[in-house]
Specification:
The complex is a heterodimer.
Chain A: E1 3-7, H1 11-14, E2 29-34, E3 53-56, E4 59-70, E5 75-80, E6 84-103, E7 108-121, E8 126-127
Parallel strand pairs in A: 1-7, 2-7
Antiparallel strand pairs in A: 3-4, 4-5, 5-6, 6-7, 6-8
Chain B: E1 2-9, E2 16-20, H1 23-32, E3 34-38, E4 47-49, E5 54-71, E6 93-110, E7 121-122, H2 126-133, H3 143-149, H4 154-163, E8 166-169, E9 172-176, H5 178-194, H6 204-211, H7 226-236, E10 237-239, E11 245-247, H8 249-264, H9 272-282, E12 300-301, E13 309-310, H10 320-330, E14 333-335, H11 336-343, H12 353-358, E15 362-366, E16 369-373
Parallel strand pairs in B: 1-6, 2-6, 7-9
Antiparallel strand pairs in B: 3-4, 4-5, 5-6, 8-9, 10-11, 12-13, 14-16, 15-16
Helix pairs in contact in B: 4-7, 5-6, 6-7, 8-9
């Protein structure tokens, strides 16, 4: 590996500082952090009673929860499956994170987005009664 | 309050990574519009380079679940009752987690480096250069190839390369030998003085013409080509904004000083006053240069406290404890200022030098001086 350049194809939008608190970047990415493990199966189960599994662009996907974000109070609630509820918040990152895409076939790296906010869930999940 | 349904790919993309964008990195990216990942070998540490800065990348692992998500529209939209037994409103958006991150790349500002250990050495003799180039442990690269694989930014490379004695001979990146550098510097200084060139604003073609005025007349091989003169000017001058070279008399003086130490004080010690006379005698006649003895620190020791003797840093052990033992074997008590160049590189945590020394030796203050001796 002598050298690989990071190209910034969407340069202008990436460097625009957002005035408002917005968890979703202008390019549509959102960062979700849970202090713990979020487990879901890696393969399709045989009986999918609740129809949680599906396909998107020929890739298998799973529906794992619901997220409610109040951007004014910066509070977030996440319901995972049917039994757990997590309380979290929207925080501004101390240093923004660049989302890089490494393309093995062309050997190029693309800076796809700059993420300035994340939704973080630090606490233990609460049961849903 | 906005409600969003969360989905994730069963097999998340593994080609995404998160890079901590520190302000100076963000500024460089905004200014240059690009950054470069570099590593001298695939197994070496990776650095990130802007035009003039280099950052070492560390992978910071964590055990949290970090999902990068984007909005999408699922092919099948379930009824709201399917989401949860908890009373929820119907989702207004759908997010798909497509990349799971278990680490972040953290950049740390570092000094760019050029690995010259396997480059051929040019002694000013074309035949021996060809022999050296054919050795199996020699790496033959063009200057562009070396620049590409050096963990060093473009601007840092341009400054460091001539300082290391880097040159291009027969389209191959090489290093000028110490002796040849001395010869080339001496001839360049004498030629520029003979042509009354201004040392504050030297011009490369003019300096080259001056050096080559009486050379190669009878068709003999002339080792002082343009690239050699470029290296000499790059090593001993500072490039001005106008593209001229300003001679750094201090670094010229230091080079001649180390030469004098090697020549007159390598086998046995020499009194400092006598050394100063010998040092002065090495310069080209009428060349004006102040002799600053402190610039020679790190190249000598004082075997009996008074006289000085040449000593190369290369001979020192790498282990800090062994290095201190070795230094105290050479000289029982050191002035901290004279010892510092020998131990500075061991101080990897950038402690204050006084505190660092205390870990391995005894420190005594004597007026303004700090003396260091073995425990």
């Amino acid at each position: 590996m002598p050298s690989v350049e990071i190209s910034v194809s969407k340069l202008k939008i990436l460097f625009e500082n957002e005035g408002n608190v917005s968890v979703t970047t202008p390019l549509g990415n959102t960062l979700l952090e849970i202090q713990g493990e979020l487990e879901f199966p890696l393969t399709l189960p045989t009986n999918d009673v609740n129809k949680k599994f599906g396909k998107f662009n020929d890739e298998h996907i799973v529906r794992f929860g619901l997220l409610q974000v109040d951007e004014a109070s910066k509070k977030a609630t996440m319901l995972v499956g049917e039994k757990q509820r997590l309380l979290g918040s929207v925080v501004k990152l101390e240093t923004p994170l660049g989302l890089l895409k490494f393309d093995q076939s062309t050997g190029s790296v693309d800076l796809q987005d700059i993420i300035r906010y994340k939704i973080i869930f630090k606490d233990r999940p609460l049961p849903i009664m | 309050m906005q409600t969003s349904a969360l989905y994730s790919k069963l097999k998340t993309d593994s080609d995404r990574k998160l890079l901590v964008l520190k302000p100076e990195l963000l500024a460089a990216l905004e200014k240059d519009g690009k950054l470069e990942f570099k590593a001298s070998k695939p197994e070496d540490s990776v650095v990130l380079c802007s035009k003039n800065k280099t950052w070492l990348l560390k992978q910071k692992n964590h055990s949290n679940t970090v999902l990068v998500m984007k909005e999408f529209i699922p092919e099948e939209i379930p009824e709201v009752s399917k989401y949860s037994s908890f009373k929820v409103t119907e989702p207004s958006s759908y997010h798909l987690g497509y990349a799971k991150q278990s680490n972040e790349l953290e950049p740390r500002l570092t000094a760019g480096e050029i690995d010259i250990s396997q480059l051929p050495i040019y002694t000013g003799d074309a035949q021996s250069f060809q022999i050296i180039s054919k050795r199996s442990n020699t790496v033959l690269l063009t200057l562009d190839e070396l620049r590409q694989c050096s963990p060093c930014s473009q601007d840092e490379f341009a400054i460091k390369w001539p300082v290391l004695g880097g040159c291009v001979v027969e389209n191959t990146a090489c290093i000028l030998s110490h002796e040849f550098t001395s010869r080339a510097l001496h001839i360049t200084l004498m030629s520029c003085m003979a042509e009354s060139l201004d040392f504050e604003a030297l011009d490369l073609p003019q300096a080259f013409a001056a050096v080559n005025k009486d050379m190669g007349e009878a068709g003999e091989f002339n080792p002082f080509n343009m690239e050699v003169v470029r290296t000499i000017l790059g090593k001993f001058c500072v490039l001005t904004q106008e593209g001229k070279f300003t001679l750094q008399r201090k670094s010229v003086g230091q080079w001649y000083g180390i030469e004098a130490l090697r020549k007159f004080a390598s086998r046995s010690m020499i009194p400092q006053e006598e050394f100063m006379i010998k040092w002065k005698s090495l310069f080209p006649p009428y060349f004006n240069c102040d002799l600053d003895f402190t610039t020679l620190r790190g190249n000598f020791y004082r075997p009996l406290g008074a006289g000085i003797q040449y000593f190369s840093k290369e001979a020192l052990p790498d282990n800090p404890k062994d290095r201190f033992t070795y230094l105290f074997k050479l000289q029982s008590t050191w002035d901290l200022d004279e010892m510092r160049p020998f131990i500075d590189q061991l101080n990897t945590n950038s402690l204050k030098i006084d505190s660092f020394v205390m870990k391995y030796a005894r420190r005594i203050r004597q007026g303004k001086r700090t003396l260091i001796s073995a425990r």
